[in-house]
Amino acid sequence: MGLAAILGLATPLFAADIPPGLAEPHLSSLPRSRDEAARVARVTAPTGQFDSAEPFEDNPAGAATVPPRSDREAYSAASGNLTFEQGLEFHLGEALFDKLWVFAPASTLASDGLGPIYNARSCQRCHIRDGRGHLPDGPDYRSASTFLRLSVPGPVPPEMAAIPDYIGTAPDPVYGWQMQDFSAPGVDAEYRLEVTFTEDIIPLNGGEQVSLRRPRFRPAELRYGPLDPAAMLSARVAPPMIGLGLLEAIPAADILALADPDDADGDGISGRANLVWSTEFQQILLGRFGLKAGTATIHEQSAAALSGDIGISTPLFAHPFGDCTPHQTACRAARHGDKDKRGTEIDQPNMDLITFYSRNIAVPARRDVSAPEVLRGKAVFYTAGCADCHRPKFVTHRLLDRAEQSFQLIWPYSDLLLHDMGEDLADHRPEGRATGREWRTAPLWGIGLAQQVSDKATFLHDGRARTLLEAILWHGGEAQPARDHIVALPPEDRAALITFLESL
């Protein structure tokens, strides 16, 4: 299949052009030699033997892997191959990631600028100890790591017109792109998130039953009037931060090579790349980050989160009022921390520190990779077809300026592509090329430590799954055959699968 077909271009491009999605302006890389490409193909090919661990399987992040910890800081270490000087840079970025922002004006200029409306006072408040967020645990919650993304149908931007299946959206005219449940004094918060559940009982082979909780998210106490009648809402729980720099260093061509949008091989798995507009580079790039792969780079993802989640202006998103719309006049008029010597509320040097930190939060080493129960579960994982989307291995680019991520064999267990996950997981809110039924394959590395890092951590995009088995049972769409295979397994094979996932 040609690149134009894979990428969904309106017309083929000339050979001298770089097709949208293949450009990588955020990376300074060397091309692979023919021998290197052949070697990479060999080491990343899916395995067919499960009687022993594969070479280097216990180091999922290559040389950046760190030893596993048994405490709640298992996700908070720096990449294992940083220099001493880079370690200092990492900890400066960590301090900014942990910083509790305050309202302007404040005596500490470097910390003011919070809001005027916001979801959290720091990055760490959502990505708890760099791990997963959780749902509100009652009607009186004061801090949670869940919010509602928001949009209405809109025109396709001119810069995306070359992508025929790009879906146009626009912000809600009153509430913007997401809903904020906290605010500065004198400014109304937008709403209160209300979550209720119903339970579905799922019978499994062998007599086991699993109760799945089906969430209903409601924006209660709307302070600025009703939502637009066409508003589309999507609940999001903060994902873990580990290994992001390595995902950013995977060659775009290697990701796109896995795409099969028309299911040409007939295996029931399509996989589509999300192509997104990069504000940072002013061009179309491959989406890698976010639950629908809606952002291309870690820097842009970080800047967008500071703006939308905390209300902090950055050089990339310089408006000081965050997601306030023109209808929210008190919000637009509130005091902010812009225009001092920083320029924006966080300046570019500090933005670079946050980006460096986010690139270098380490992936812990695997546990028990050679244990018979883990190997049995790995065989189930492959036989069920889980590895068709949760792609085990990649080799990163050979990079000129990021030795810590350069030419590493990594095991993220994701293809970073969009897949139709069925009606039960649909949010009916498109993002770029992603439809309301599509989600980016979530990386699985480190997932066995998620609830060690935070005992409130849950799984899937909206936190509905309390266990890994529940997460599997919610899979539908392209993953329905794999889910049904696991339902039909003998209980001991199903238990082995969970043991394998807990070893990641």
Characterize the main sheet.
4 strands, antiparallel
Shape: globular
Please trace the helix and strand order, writing H or E for each element. HEHHEHEEEEEEEHHEEHHHHEEEEEHHHH
Low-confidence stretches: 9-16
Task: Name the helicity range.
Answer: 10-25%
Q: Give the percentage of residues in beta strands.
A: 5-15%
Q: Number of DSSP helices?
A: 14
- The beta-strand count equals 16
- Summed over residues and divided by their number, the pLDDT gives a mean of 94
C-alpha termini separation:
34 Å
- Find the structural class using helix and strand composition: alpha+beta
Radius of gyration: 22 Å
Can you tag this structure with a few keywords?
504 residues, two-stranded antiparallel sheet, alpha+beta, four-stranded antiparallel β-sheet
How would you characterize this protein structure?
This protein is of the alpha+beta class and 504 residues long. It has helices at residues 3-7, 34-44, 84-98, 123-126, 244-248, 252-256, 298-310, 329-333, 348-359, 372-383, 450-453, 468-473, 480-487, 491-503; strands at 29-30, 117-118, 146-153, 169-170, 178-179, 182-183, 192-203, 209-220, 232-237, 275-278, 283-286, 394-395, 398-399, 409-410, 418-420, 438-440. β10 and β11 (283-286) form a beta hairpin. α3 packs across α9 (348-359) and α7 crosses α9. The longest helix has 15 residues, at 84-98. The chain is globular and about 65 Å long.
